[in-house]
Structure formats: structure tokens, C-alpha cells
Design a protein that fits this description.
mainly alpha; about 160 residues
């Protein structure tokens, strides 16, 4: 866990910054009636064989729901510092998925990003939040870890560790 005040401040700022990124994405998806992940999936390039068929399958509404509310839940978790370990893992998986979906090998998104883009940077920051136990720094993970129902439940204890 971070020990210096500057390190704690940086960890909180990184956590809150990524919370904003996820919550802002969710605001466009949850609040816009009729939004679907199909358009995004249909325009993938390098891994179109994987993502393209999902754009027109019976799973599209399920994937859309998971993306919308996944962004929302990850953002809220990071904002409140609750279950940061768990939400960061899902955030990393989501960022790696977006990274592969944006590929036009060897470019990511456009010719200005060769192999790496902001999705990888976000994934690395999320990994740092796990390592630094960011939910314990001005977040609710420390409080939750002290609750008896969490202390006696391995999965909950792990999520707020």
C-alpha cells in the first residue's frame, strides 16, 4: 500500500481519472436509447473474424448490456474505491478487448498509434491500482475489509484486499 502522501495522492488521482473514463463511456451507452455494440463490432479489422459475427448474432443484446453496465459498474467501483481489485481485472479485460478490436495491424485505431494506444496505458494503470491496493487509499475497500461479513467470506475478502 502507498506510504507517502504524494504516492497516495497520485493513486487516488489515477483511480478517479479512470473512474471518469468508464463513467463517461457508460453515460453515452446507458442513457442513449437504442445504443448497441453492433456498430462497433461490425467495424473491427484485424480480428473481424472474431468480433464481426457478434455484431449480428442473438448475443448482441447481451453483449450490449454487459458493455453498458460493465462500464458503469467499473466506473462506480473506481469512484468509490470499493472492490477495486475485482473491477480493475474486468477493466483490464475490457481494455485488452478494445485494443484488439481497434487494431488495423500494426496500427491501433489510426496510423499515429503503432502497436500501443491508450487502451494498453489504461490497462497498465488498472494493474497498478491492483498492486497498490488503490481502494484502501481514500476508498471503501479498507472499511469493507473490516466488516465481519466480508472477513468471513473468502470471495468478498479477496475483492477488497
Amino acid at each position: 500500500m502507498p506510504t507517502s502522501s504524494s504516492e497516495r495522492t497520485l493513486i487516488v488521482l489515477l483511480r478517479l481519472s479512470l473512474a471518469w473514463v468508464f463513467l463517461y463511456a457508460a453515460s453515452h451507452q446507458v442513457l442513449v436509447k437504442g445504443w448497441s455494440v453492433a456498430g462497433f463490432l461490425d467495424h473491427t479489422k484485424t480480428f473481424h473474424w472474431l468480433y464481426g459475427p457478434m455484431a449480428h448474432s442473438s448475443l448482441t443484446p447481451v453483449i450490449t448490456f454487459l458493455v453498458e453496465y460493465g462500464h458503469l459498474l467499473i466506473g462506480l467501483s473506481l469512484l468509490f474505491g470499493l472492490a477495486v481489485r475485482l473491477s480493475s481485472i474486468f477493466g483490464i479485460l475490457l481494455m485488452l478487448t478494445y485494443w484488439t478490436a481497434h487494431m488495423d495491424w500494426p496500427y491501433i485505431g489510426d496510423v499515429n498509434s503503432l502497436l500501443l494506444d491508450f487502451h494498453i496505458v489504461y490497462a497498465l494503470i488498472l494493474a497498478l491500482l491492483i498492486v497498490k491496493r488503490a481502494g484502501h487509499v481514500f476508498g471503501l475497500d479498507g472499511w469493507a475489509a473490516r466488516q465481519s461479513f466480508v472477513a468471513h467470506n473468502g470471495a468478498l475478502r479477496w475483492a477488497v484486499a
